[in-house]
Amino acid sequence: MNNFFIGIMCTSMLFSAEKKKGKLPDFSGFSKKIELKGLMEPDLEEFQKDKKTHPFQIEEIMKKAAEFIVEPVTEDEIVIMETTRGTLILKLFPQLAPNHCNNFKKLANSGFYDGSRFHRVLPNFMIQGGDILSRDSDRSNDGTGGPGWTVDAEFNETQHKRGILSMARSSDPNSAGSQFFICSADATHLDGQYTAFGEVLDNIYVVDHLVNAMTGFKQVQMMSENLIPEGADPKKWIKLRVPRSRKDIFLEVPDGENASSYKIEMKNKLLSNNPIAGAILNKVRVVHKDELKDQK
Asked: Where in the chain do CATH 2.40.100.10 domains reside?
C-alpha cells in the first residue's frame, strides 16, 4: 500500500516499530503539565490501556464506512474532534472541496476515525492522523493505511496557514483516502499541492499540545550527550548522526545490551515522529453547529 506523505521536505510515512527495552526511560505517560481551559488533564492509566484493534475488526470498520451514507456537507455543519489532549472544533469548506468534505463526514460519522492516532507529529509544521492501521499493534505500518478508496484532488486557493485542515496523499495527487493533517504553523509551500478542506475554529492550543507529544526522536535526543563524558569508557558508548541536523550524538549502551543491536534500535527511533502515547482520536463527528450549542 502506498505511503502517505506531506510536504517537500517530508519522506515516507513508514515508521519503525517501537520496541520496548527495560533499560530505556518510560515515556509512555509523558505530558507537559499545561493547565488551559478545555484541555483534558492526562490520565496516564488511560494512555497505557490496551486499545489495539484486531485485523478482522479493522476490516469490519472499513466495511461499515464503505456502506455508510451521508448527506452532503453544508455550511451549517462543524467538526467536533475529541482527542486525549482536548477537543478541537473545526469548520469544513464544502464550496471549495465538496468531495473531500463529504468523504471526511462519511468516515467520521461511520466511526472510522474513532480510536485511531495522530501517528505523525512535526513541531512547527503539522500533526497527521486518520490512518485506520494506527489502531492495530504494529507501529511500523502507521501511515500506510486508507479506507479502501481514494478521492481526486480538489486543489484550491486556500493557503496552508496555521490551523488549516488538509488531506494527506501519496505522490499521486488523486490518492487521498482517510489520512489528514492539521497545520500547527504556516506551511504555504504546500499550497496548490494538497487539498485544504477545513480549518480549526476553536481550541487551536490542542494542536500545539499534540504536536509536542513525546516521540522516538525526542526520546533519543533526551537520552543523548553531545560528547562522551570525560573518563567514560568509549567502548560503552555509541555514536549516531541526527538526520535533521546532521549533528553527532552519543548514547551509553545499557549494561547487558549488545552495542550493535542497541545502535540499530536507537537509529530507528531517531527516524520516528510517531507519538509514544497520548495522541488518540477518541471520537470525530460532523454535526450541525446547533449541537455544539446544546453541549455548552
From this structure: 44-213+274-295
Least confident range from 42-46, 107-111, 143-147, 149-153: namely: 42-46
CATH top class, domain 44-213+274-295: mainly beta
Give the helix, strand, coil percentages of the chain, each rounded to 5.
25, 20, 55
Within 8 A by CB and 6+ apart from 140, the residues are: 14, 15, 16, 17
86 against 55, higher pLDDT = 86
Residue 171 is classified by DSSP as S
Euclidean distance between CA atoms 134 and 148, whole angstroms: 15
According to DSSP, the residues that pair with 92 across neighbouring strands are: 198
Distance CA 36, CA 39 (A): 5
DSSP letter (8 states) at residue 143: T
The pLDDT assigned to 278 comes to 74
Q: Which of 191, 181, 121 is nearest to 160 (CA)?
A: 191
Contact 296, 120 (CB under 8 A): no
Determine what percent of the chain is predicted with pLDDT higher than 90: 75
The alpha carbon torsion through 53, 56, 58, 62 (nearest 10 deg) reads -160
Question: 258: which residues sit within 8 A by CB, 6+ positions away?
Answer: none
Q: Which of 126, 38, 128, 147 shows the shortest CA–CA distance to 82? A: 38
pTM: 0.81
The tens digit of pLDDT for each residue in 4-36 reads 555 433 433 322 233 333 344 443 343 333 333
